[in-house]
Design a protein that fits this description.
5 strands; 228 residues; 5-stranded mixed sheet; 43% helix
């Protein structure tokens, strides 16, 4: 059965989409640029803001939000049709490009958002593609470190609130990226988007659960243990 997607207006969402059979989605930098252009067009049309991203070879991570229920889903559906059509024409191929529906989880807009954004921007480092986040051109890291202005990114208010001065804000974000994410928290983030739950404090999870009438906490994987 298809899992119910949790979307709440204004609440950030971590989106993950992989290529079919984990195959390459981006063959070159032109593919990546076209993806960002199409993402920007589809997100703008659906009132979706892009707060962070990374474009890996065979998958993408996005941090987005929308004031409209279902806005993110509409933007990603439109993006799927638009980019796949462009990609297939360019590379003379047919058939699907993405592995079914995208996965997503809601993210609290406090320290959880910072961990999630750092997780996204540090992906190329963990994959051995680059020495540090700022050296990878196809993510929002350079934007958040003040190394370039990324026209596709709208910094989340929580990020802007890190410091009043932009230079101080960039230094704070560099410190967060340099500190990295511990193994336990890394697996926790992954499990939340695998199960499409709500990544945040107990209080935040309870708030979203009451609002949506859905279970939002991660459940243990595997069969439940039986009592002796």
């Amino acid at each position: 059965m298809r899992r119910y997607r949790i979307e709440v207006p204004g609440v950030p969402m971590h989106v993950v989409q992989r290529g079919v059979d984990r195959a390459r989605v981006f063959r070159d930098d032109d593919d990546r640029h076209h993806y960002l252009v199409d993402l920007h067009a589809c997100a703008s049309a659906a009132a979706v803001a892009l707060h962070g991203y990374v474009l890996m070879d065979n998958h993408v991570h996005l941090l987005v939000s929308s004031p409209i229920t279902g806005g993110v889903s509409r933007a990603l559906r439109a993006l799927g049709a638009r980019f796949v059509r462009r990609h297939n024409t360019r590379h003379k191929r047919t058939g699907p490009l993405w592995e079914g529906r995208f996965r997503s989880c809601l993210v609290a807009d406090d320290r959880y958002l910072f961990r999630c954004l750092a997780y996204i921007e540090l992906n190329p480092v963990r994959a051995g593609m680059t020495r540090d986040a700022e050296s990878f051109a196809w993510s929002s890291a350079q934007h958040h470190l003040g190394l370039r202005r990324d026209p596709f990114v709208e910094s989340h208010p929580a990020f802007v609130a890190l410091a009043a001065e932009a230079a101080t804000r960039y230094r704070a974000w560099r410190s967060i990226l340099d500190h990295g994410i511990g193994r336990i928290e890394l697996e926790r983030i992954r499990e939340y988007f695998r199960q499409e739950r709500v990544y945040g404090s107990d209080a935040f999870q309870e708030q979203i659960s009451v609002l949506t009438g859905r279970s939002v906490r991660v459940t243990p994987r595997g069969r439940p243990r039986t009592l002796a």
